[in-house]
Amino acid sequence: MSKITTGKFSLEDLENVQITINNIVGAIETKAEEEGVEMGPTPKPGISSLRNWDYKLLSRYQPVYTPVCDQCCYCTFGKCDLGGNKEGACGINMEAHQAREFLLRVITGAAAHAGHGRHILHHLIEKHGGDHPINVGPSNLLAPNTQMVTGIMPKTLGDLEKVMDYVEEQLTQLLATIHVGQEGSSLDFESKAMHGGMLDHVGMEVSDLAQISCMGMPKSDPEAPLAEIGMGCIDSTKPVLLVIGHNVAGVTYIMDYMREHDLDDKMELAGLCCTAIDMTRYQTDKGGQPRAKIIGALAKELKMIRSAAPDVIIVDEQCVRADVLDEAKRLFIPVITTNEKIMYGLPDRSKDSADKIIEDLSSGKEAGALILDFDLLGEVAPRLAMKMAPIREAKGIKSLPSDEELKTLTASCVQCGACELVCPNNLPIMNAMTAAVAGDITKFEKLHDHCIACGRCDPVCPKGIPILNVIEKAAQRAIREEKGKMRAGRGQISDPEIREEGVNLVMGTTPGILAMVGCSNYPEGTKDLYTVANEMLQRNYIVVMSGCSAMDLGMYKDEEGKTLYEKYPAKFLAGNLINVGSCVSNAHITGTAIKVAAIFAQRNITGNYEEIADYIMNRIGAVGVAWGAYSQKASSIATGCNRLGIPVIVGPHGSKYRRALIGKPYNEEDWKVYDARNGEEMPIPSSPEFLLTTAETIEELMPMIAKNCIRPSDNNMGRMIKLTHYIELSQKYLGHLPEDWYKFVRVETDLPITRREELLKILEKEHGWEIDWKRKKIISGPTMKLDVSAQPTNVKRLCKESVC
Amino acid sequence: MLMVDTTKNTMIYTTWGSRNAKPVQPLVAAKLISKAKRPLLVIGADALDSDVINKAIAIGKKGLQIAATGHSMQGFKDQDVNAKYVNIHFLAHYLGDKNWKGLDGQGSYDLVIFLGHKKYYVNQVLSGLKNFTDIKTLAIDRHYLQNADMSFGNLKPEDHLEALDELISNL
User: Fold this and answer.
1) Which residue of A50, A178, A667, A730 could cross-link A738, Cys pair, CB 3.0 to 4.6 Å?
2) How far is B93 from chain A (nearest CA, A)?
């Protein structure tokens, strides 16, 4: 009997009959076998397939729940007060409900990325065909997350559709578990959340692989060009077209139209959030320069609209304020929605003529339009901006108060504190008002940087002061100076780069990878990102940026007027600064760790999640930081990292995700693994000490990063380097020698070289270690041995069979 | 006679649940601390922005163990107080573990007092303690922290310092 393959078949003698075979049972395994690739144990894992691995993680890193609400209001049994870990009417207790809440955040975030991925993939297949090859740079391992999770090794856009089918099916299964009743175990909800996080990285990977392959984006390019960023870089004497969102598909048509009609220099194309990042990547892979400017992250949305500079606003999906249309209406700025996720109640004009739409919007007959046809969008948006600019100028539209009005408004503040009570950051607005009355606006300038422009203060002021507008008016000087540079997203780390740097990461001689990801809900302003990245770059960490963090980092300059992107090279080497790209490019960060396992350690990654996660956890010193994390997507990205054993630190607002995963260093039993050479247990350092936690300030954050890059596989040079940074950063920012530093010492050569004698004395005096002072060697004391040949693993089946 | 009424303003922006902190006066707070067998004073990094750090030192000098969170350790250098750094999220986790030996190896705590933190952050930490532990919590910050068992109300910065002085003088 001949083998059935996928494809379309017509049956002889039967007219109008065509059979399409999409999926064949065992097809992934068969294809892998044909290509000579060994299939791991868990291709396309279901919800329970990796449960044992999750339980291993959760036994060391226990969930810490901090409810945002003590009640559950999921069904009509309730509301139920679960306070004190009581059970609700359906039988769920507070612990399990919090785990369910966290799961819901994770799958919401994963669905946002996967929905984006499906949309852009569908669009690009329609445009380029399913056979269009995936081309992301000089790599053989094209889709590390996809290959590790699903076992599929995609080569074309069409192959990615099968991957999305799997992600969507699993997300549906996970969403079903949220329903009332059913699961009662918090740990099983946690395992499901891990599953959702893993799926998120696959969905993100599909999105970025597709757009890199088809949109001329940089392909693992360390020389990706620099783009302009900041509110101050916008020339508002030209018509300004502002785009907001995360899905660049429609915007590329606008850019094409502008180029074809010679409009690039005649108008400003500016973006907010990840669409902005992806606009600056568009068609730059062959030496092209970015043709759009970046305003910044979500925190700049209301500020930019209230500046009245945009003449037209285009929105697509995800991190877009729900009140864009209302805000824009007040300033006679037409809004065009371009994606089914945001339609704002606007009429669908997708089948109307460009002339008619432009006429209706520019005359004010309609406040906006839904346009789902990208060819039409490409023409309407720039033409409308060109038409609106003189109309709006003639109307003298402005939003911010005049200098005189500013004085009156600040003087009318009665210091009641209502604005500070509702401010998410409790910003000292009353103080700034008082200072402004006395002629000092510097406090408002500081507020501008710290304010996330949520607008909650405006409606609560009993005197009707438009507080955000007051802040923005008072900070005009600072805003004009907001001009920076961001390196356009380069996409993946290539296979050759991994070959060069992998050994340094595993041995620890490159002290670690710091991935600064996520959004802009910073506790103390955007400059904190710069401070952290600058410190860690000077210490030779590889700093990887993505999404809103990548943008905000480019806003600040050193004394010589250079941003960090201009100051540091962008290769995957110690002391380099990399921007992988937009939100969906986060998959390249986990992809890098997977590639180290595949390329440096020659591990089989195909359908082999547990082994690869185990490898990464024990060997790769990487820490994620989402300092301004606010979105559900940030929680799913972090959870995807966590399942791979990569720890993530979020800022203090991250405590509102409701749960952390934190270990107990004082429980020695928790910090043991097997040595795969013989199956014997071996003690390991308590690092990473957590999988997800918060830090209070950046001063606390920096030593936490250094400490949690320590791994069992560090050689003595690597451990010495990592310990040096941990001790130095603790002393610099916390003012003390950390209490647990000695626990990471295995031999004297692990000690910082310049302080060896001093630290040996402390070990002898305070910890009772025996020291041979003639040879300056440790005789006894350490709980761990240095053995670079050891093979640390959490998975017993990976030990040599004879022993285990 | 009351110097500062720390119970007057308990206005909140959002609520966590049906149980809110009982507002307390400085004198009552001082008595609670004095009566506790194993009190722990948790000081956040916001204390460094004002004279609050000196009030924390003054309380610490009365013999309380200090858990210095964030980078508040900077403020306790050479101050002759018993302060140890700990991440506040970690601390919340350890406090829920009956086997934890405390920062000094002598066992866990029966009253945890919070000062110098971001309101939204410490309220989350307190939410965890409220729902999953039996530990009593007291907030003496300048914001009403509804997830504590007892808390000062919302205070102006100068009134807050005065209230802390009153508390210290009654320890």
Assistant:
1) A730
2) 6
Place of tokens 């205070």: B155
Pick the CATH number of B22-169 from 1.10.340.30, 3.40.50.1220, 3.40.640.10, 3.40.30.10: 3.40.50.1220
pLDDT at A99 over 90: yes
Model pLDDT for residues A530-583, shown as the tens digit of each residue: 999 999 999 999 999 999 999 999 999 999 999 999 999 999 999 999 999 999
Of B71, B84, B128, the CB nearest to A66: B128
Tell me the residues of chain B between 100 and 139 that have a Cβ less than 8 Å away from chain A: 100-101, 117-121, 124-125, 127-128, 130-132
Beta strands A268-272 and A7-10: pairing type? unpaired
Which pair of tokens denotes residue A563? 């941003």
pLDDT tens digits, one per residue of B118-144: 999 999 999 999 999 999 999 999 999
A226-395 belongs to CATH 3.40.50.2030: yes
Yes or no: say if A491 and A457 are a contact pair by the CB < 8 Å rule.
no
Chain B within 8 Å of A656 (Cβ-Cβ)? Answer: yes
Half-sphere exposure of A22 (CA within 13 A, CB side): 6
**pLDDT reported for residue A788:** 85
Backbone φ, ψ for residue A20 (5° rounding)? -110, 125
Q: Return the domain boundaries, chain A.
A: 40-214, 226-395, 403-480, 488-780
Q: What is the complex's ipTM, to 2 decimals?
A: 0.97
The CA distance from A202 to A194, in Å, is 13
Judged by a CB distance cut-off of 8 A, whether residue A524 touches chain B is no
Using a CB-CB distance cutoff of 8 angstroms, which residues of chain B are in contact with residue A85? 131-132
CATH 1.10.10.10, applies to A40-214 = no
When the pLDDT of each residue in chain A is averaged and rounded to a whole number, the result is 95
* B interface test, pick of A734, A740, A741 with most B CB neighbours within 10 Å: A734
What's residue A711's pLDDT? Answer: 96
From chain A, the residues in CB contact with B125 under 8 A are 66, 655
Domain A488-780 has CATH 3.40.50.2300: no
Residue A715 · residue A508 · CB < 8 Å: yes
Domain residue spans in chain B?
Answer: 22-169
